[in-house]
Every structure is written in C-alpha cells, then in structure tokens.
C-alpha cells in the first residue's frame, strides 16, 4: 500500500470515528404538571451530558412526576 493510500484511509477512519462520538453539553429539562386545571412548571438543569443521557434523565423526571398522578406531568428538553 502506498503512503498516499494509507493517509487517505487514516483520514477516513478518523473522520468516521469523530462523526459518531457525541459531545457533552448542558441541557434544561422543562416539566409541566397539570392538576385540576392549574399548572406548574419546573426546570431541571442537566450538566455535561450527551443528548441521549439528558433525554433519559428528563424522562426519569417525568416518570417521577407521574407516580402519584399518571399523565399529569410532561417533560421535554
């Protein structure tokens, strides 16, 4: 294999590897709870997380809010 082909393959491999890594950011999960026509909104800061981890954490906040009143709380990033 020539040096030129080796460099091209290495560049492609590096580019492919960096495309599939997820950078970490700060997210805000906003939860709204509605009970009897009254609503309350609460925000949760999720620091230094990937999108997938932040989404999972936000879903956990929603699940916790719905333990006592199913369907009363909705959360989103």
Number of domains: 1
Determine Rg (CA atoms, Å). Answer: 21 Å
The chain-level mean pLDDT equals: 85
Number of helices: 2
Biggest β-sheet strands, sense, barrel: 3 strands, antiparallel
Strand order of the main beta sheet, please? 2-1-3
What ranges have pLDDT less than 50 throughout 5 or more consecutive residues?
none
Helical coverage, percent range: 40-55%
Shape: rod-shaped
Proportion in β-strands: 35-45%
Number of strand segments: 3
Give me the strand/helix succession.
Answer: HEEHE
Cα distance spanning the termini: 48 Å
Helix and strand composition category: alpha+beta
Q: What this model shows, in words?
A:
- This protein is an alpha+beta fold and 77 residues long.
- The chain has one domain.
- The chain contains two helices and three strands.
- A three-stranded antiparallel sheet has the order 2-1-3, with helices on one face.
- The longest helix is centred in the N-terminal third of the chain and has 17 residues.
- The radius of gyration is 21 Å and the shape is rod-shaped.
